[in-house]
Design brief:
With about 350 residues, the chain is of the alpha/beta class. It has eleven helices and 13 strands. Helix 2 packs parallel to helix 8 and helix 3 packs parallel to helix 4. Bound molecules: pyridoxal-5'-phosphate.
């Protein structure tokens, strides 16, 4: 019995050719981010239609750097708890205070009505996560940011190709962070990117490029200066070359993901499931079940991998506090994610639907 994987990158010959080309060029990486990295930044910028793009080596690096742009030391950042822990870690890394907000039960993105209650004079950033590829309510969140002079940084790790009111995610917030981890819609061995839409985008771009390469600035031949701390966060040439090929396929692969999600939303006979939204890029598709461990075990026995996204961050020892997030906590116990990657065949899809319906 062949296994139906939860995640699986979609590749063809073009990625093979791209990797071989980089390998044989002997130019595998540069702190300056020239070569394939720069090409990828330019193509992704056109794809999402933002002002500037800075490629880095992971979504985690993108979040760490983006939050370092606005001095958040001892300031508050509002974020959902239902996310990968990197979203919150980036706040601690920058000396900020995470303020977790509950989510909307329909989209599992942060609930704007609950955000306003958390805003204080210490709030510096709102950090929405476009959960599973569904955009957060950017109209209301942007308004809250504008009215309260707060920066908007988006965690778009799940949202390469998602649109909000017909504009691509990446073209809205001050800074928007993408992940190109191998499980993501646009897959690389490792990679990430920060899209910039602020008015002072040129200055931010310069700072981010310095920070992604150990703080190196004012390069002139072999001479350079270092004025601020930086890290080794630059993207390598293999990732960028694969990314360029993945980007050409992204609309196609996302439309396949949408077809799969449409079938799940029509045919899975459970009330609590991810809604179908034509603007969503469906990084994964979630359902909610009561008997989760047993349910996942039964599916696995039939050769179907599922996931749990996520254990809420505020329940980890590092983040434990007295806050109560009733919807997040309930969903954290029930959520199961199903495969939506484009390698799923029609037969696989029918099998997943039939098996899920059998065991719910
Ligand atoms: C919501 C979210 N944020 C951030 C990240 C971090 O991205 P990366 O794994 O590329 O560091 C991920 C990836 O797993 C994610 O799902």
């Amino acid at each position: 019995m062949s296994k139906i994987k939860l995640f699986d990158p979609y590749i063809d010959k073009s990625e093979n050719i791209a990797v071989k080309r980089v390998l044989e060029s002997h130019f595998w990486a540069s702190g300056a981010g020239s070569g394939e990295v720069e090409k990828f930044e330019n193509k992704f910028l056109k794809y999402i239609n933002s002002k500037s793009c800075v490629a880095v080596n992971s979504g985690t690096a993108a979040l760490n750097l983006a939050l370092s742009i606005y001095d958040i030391k001892n300031k508050e950042v509002i974020l959902p708890s239902l996310s990968f822990v990197a979203t919150a870690n980036a706040i601690l890394e920058n000396g900020g205070i995470p303020k977790f907000v509950d989510i909307d039960e329909n989209t599992l993105c942060m609930d704007p009505k609950k955000i306003s209650k958390l805003i204080s004079n210490k709030t510096k950033v709102i950090l929405p996560v476009h959960f599973g590829g569904i955009s957060s309510n950017l109209t209301e969140i942007s308004k809250l940011c504008k009215d309260n002079k707060i920066h908007l940084i988006e965690d778009a790790a799940h949202a390469a190709g998602t649109t909000y009111n017909n504009n691509k995610i990446g073209s809205h917030g001050d800074l928007v962070c993408f992940s190109f981890h191998p499980v993501k819609n646009l897959a690389m061995p490792t990679g990430g990117l920060i899209s910039i839409n602020s008015k002072n985008y040129k200055k931010i771009e310069k700072t981010l490029k310095e920070k992604r390469w150990c703080g190196i600035t004012n390069r002139n031949g072999v001479n350079y200066d270092v004025k601020n701390i930086g890290w080794n966060y630059y993207m390598n040439e293999f990732s960028a070359a694969i990314g360029l090929e993945q980007l050409k396929k992204l609309n196609h692969t996302n439309s396949r993901r949408k077809e799969i999600a449409k079938m799940y939303s029509k045919k899975i006979l459970i009330e609590k499931k991810m809604p179908f939204d034509n603007e969503c890029s469906y990084h994964f598709y979630w359902i909610r079940v009561k008997n989760r461990d047993e349910f996942r075990e039964k599916l696995l026995k039939k050769g179907i991998e599922t996931g749990i996204h996520y254990k809420p961050i505020h329940t980890f020892s590092l983040y434990k506090s007295k806050i109560k997030l009733p919807i997040t906590e309930k969903i954290g116990k029930e959520i199961v994610t199903l495969p939506t990657h484009p390698n799923i065949t029609k037969k696989d899809l029918e099998k997943v639907i039939k098996t899920v319906n059998q065991f719910i």
